[in-house]
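Our preliminary data section would be incomplete without showing what the modeling component actually yields. Below, a chain of 182 amino acids is followed by its predicted structure, encoded as tokens that our downstream tools consume directly.
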Amino acid sequence: IMGILLVIGIIIGTLIAIILIGGLLVPKHYVFEKSMHIKASRDKVWTQLNNFGSLVKWMPWMRMDPLMESGIDGQDGTAGAKYWWNGNKQVGEGSMTFKSFNAPEKTVIDLQFLKPFKSKALTTLKAVPDGLGTNVTWAMEGDTPYPMNFISKVIFNMEKYLDKDFGAGLSNLKEICEDKNF
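Predicted structure:
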């Protein structure tokens, strides 16, 4: 039994050492962005990027919990307006606050998660005309504390999940903006 406990102890110690050393090697700051071409004018796309009433219709997380509690504090579509939510384990609890607008090109949002873990990020939505429509880029950047930076980058692969979710959101946005009835 002592031999088995020793082996288990060595394995656990090695895993902890890998995480701690890995956390020193992996950057704490992250930047992720995804773009999609939308066959619609920038003005049409902009109406979906500058207010929470529209944003929550295409962002994928808002569709994951139909019973989620949410609301808007302040005047929607203005700097300082805040959208908050409290939902199931998939969406957690947090808020988005409009930081600034550069109409009709860029929206900047402060994103704060409270559950399942606390974190903050800066999100930008950019709409750039490209002749045949609009190229929309959705970006997020922030800092992940040590040693969670290693866990989120290497073990959890946060970029894989962001790529999937941002892709779904941009596809939803594309569908809304390219709808002839919109």
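The mean pLDDT is 91. DSSP finds five helices and seven strands in the chain. Preliminary results of this kind motivate Aim 1 of the renewal.
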